[in-house]
Predict the structure of Uracil phosphoribosyltransferase.
Amino acid sequence: MDVLAVDHPLAKARLTVMRDARTDNATFRAALHELTDMLIYEAMRDAPVRRERIHTPVARTEGYWLANPPLLVPVLRAGLGMADHAHKLIPDAQMGFVGLARDEQTLKPVPYMESLPESLADRPVLVLDPMLATGGSMEHTIRLLIDRGATDVTAVCALAAPEGIERLDKSGLPVRLVTGSVDERLNESGFIVPGLGDAGDRQYGAV
Ligand SMILES: O=P(O)(O)OC[C@H]1O[C@H](OP(=O)(O)OP(=O)(O)O)[C@H](O)[C@@H]1O
Ligand SMILES: O=c1cc[nH]c(=O)[nH]1
Ligand SMILES: [Mg+2]
């Protein structure tokens, strides 16, 4: 699997704010918004463009548009914190939604919501979820997309654990990963170490 870790000082600084246990909910959300801009920017680097001749006030030149804007799919709750900023960078993207809550005993994703276009054939998809831990939630989401014909899926995450990356890799699913960091490991509770805690709770409060 193709993995891009966005190794950039500005991304590292936003991640430091998010990792710090003293950071309050509002400041955490703001740092995630800014990190999302950087991750999406990198995720879209090689997106095909459509060219168009345009006129500046001075001369004719070539203009560029995204040839095939992606579908954005935030995974609720935590992925909601990436949705609006991804959408600002790609205003002509459509958005679908997947709601999953990981059962903290079994570590399996429990689906509670799904709102996706029926066909995703020929449509790139960016899945937005700050955390790739065991990879169960991401694998579930990617399978929903593939069932609808998607063949070009990018997982965009703030943090990824090696265990989750290995799981996606072994699944053979057509996915690449863009992440702010590959962390050390999972702990015995399935949390990323050093990580940042529960990304949903850090943004919205504990449920
Ligand atoms: O890789 P996994 O082991 O599946 O864990 C990652 C999932 O856990 C978090 O969501 P959570 O289930 O806590 O839901 P929330 O966003 O509502 O907090 C996170 O946002 C991922 O969706
Ligand atoms: O560290 C983790 C693992 C799963 N989900 C989170 O929000 N954080
Ligand atoms: Mg959570």
User: Anything to note?
Assistant: The first helix runs from residue 9 to 19. The chain has a mean pLDDT of 98. The first strand starts at residue 3 and ends at 5.
